[in-house]
Task: structure prediction
Amino acid sequence: MNIKNNRIDNLDFIRGIAILGILIMNSVVFALPESALWNHSSAGTENFLDWILVFFSVIFIDGKMMGLFSALFAVGLVLFVESANRKGYRIPVLLSLWRNLLLFCFGMIHIVFMYVYVDILWAYAVLSPAILFLRNKRISLLLGIFFATIFISIFNGFFFQSIFDSNGNLISEMEHIFTDKKGLGSYWFSNSEVLGDAIGTYFLLMYFFRIFSLMLLGLILYKLNVVQGSLSKKTYKKIIYICLPVGLSITLITPVWLSIENYDPEIAVMAYLPIFIGTYPLVIGYVSLLSLIYTKISRKISSYLKDCGRMAFTNYITQSLFGMLVFYYLFEDVEFTRKEIIIFVLVVWIIQIIWSKLWLKNFNQGPLEWFWRKLTYIKG
Result:
């Protein structure tokens, strides 16, 4: 196996871990009120085990798996253009833009059927032109934009926290801007079904700035040969020893702060800034750690996770289908706890790990990957 294939295998392995990990957080969205994703005390936490699962997911999973997935999506954009260029396409970037327009359509369909506010596929499609434009720029410029994006996200967090009072209501000075006059709503309170304009605006800005910065991080890591798995073990270990302790220390501030303040609405937005900041060193650390793990575990074990990564699009959408079936239809009126939700996650993992392996034994791509590719090259 040549170096190029080793690098692709490493990416598929990390992507497989990420797509499975994403379900841990998305399953909370399926099973519990929207507030449970942020105000963990609002639903699904009945006993000590539930809280252990909350702390584990917040510290190690929340944002980190999405971060890995977003970084690798940016890498995939670059690899696609490079591949199209080698195949002789005159304007490979145009082909990539068409491909991401299709992804935008898939994302919109996902939003409509899942009744969600935003979708990660839609966000990737919208942000992909910027990543394609920046793909050949100097690392110094990319780093400048990367840190500027993080700074803007932090500023937004402090600003939007300031427009809500201690009870989570919109302050009167902002009512002429956000005319629905809604406060934190379903972002923080389980008895609310409405996401007000103010917190909805913050959520949308936060979501896009965060994903864009993570995609930029993926581009930077690609240029530095980190995500390809081609650096020395010594280098990866150095990265791990620096990034993981730093990232975990910063991330830990969020659950500790929320617990000390008893999930006070007065810190509902601001308390999540540490976890957002800590995601970046953790993504770098996770990439390095998983790249090392990939070289040490058996080919048989790694092949199952690589196949999940190769079918990431199919697995992402089918996770939503499983979530809808179980939580929206079969058990619509059941109040779930975190420990019950994790059982659902484990069952779906087993199904997807097995079917990804079986499917790719007989086909070169997952079904949705195949369909996406067919539409991409529909003009020849």
Observations:
- DSSP finds 13 helices and no strands in the chain.
- The radius of gyration is 21 Å.
